[in-house]
Design brief:
single chain; alpha+beta; 4 helices; binds zinc ion
């Protein structure tokens, strides 16, 4: 059973590209696994450790983290996911977002 919506969303946004760049930097720390079909990822939840963490493309054209483990169900921005690895990386991401005028 796929937990992803079948709808393919537009990932040509500057936000998505920026998120990809930074997620790539932290790929090993986050244990990201690509999910090529929908341009998302599966990863262990940084908050509860469950293997049921996902990054999927949201309506805003960027990625959203959601944990599907009962009792956790954390929803978080890419910024917070990066912050779980490194506050420095999170700050750089946020600054770069402003520098590129990405909302
Ligand atoms: Zn979780």
């Amino acid at each position: 059973m796929s937990l992803f919506k079948t709808e393919v969303r537009d990932t040509s946004t500057p936000l998505f590209r920026l998120e990809q760049e930074y997620l790539n930097t932290a790929k090993q720390d986050l244990h990201l696994q690509s999910n090529d079909n929908n341009k998302g990822y599966q990863l262990p939840c940084p908050w509860c450790g469950s293997s049921r963490g996902f990054l999927f493309v949201g309506r805003h054209g960027g990625l959203i983290f959601k944990c599907h483990a009962a009792g956790c169900e954390t929803v978080a921005s890419v910024s917070r996911v990066l912050g779980s690895v490194s506050r420095k990386l999170q700050n750089e991401f946020n600054e770069e977002k402003v520098a590129r005028r990405i909302k």
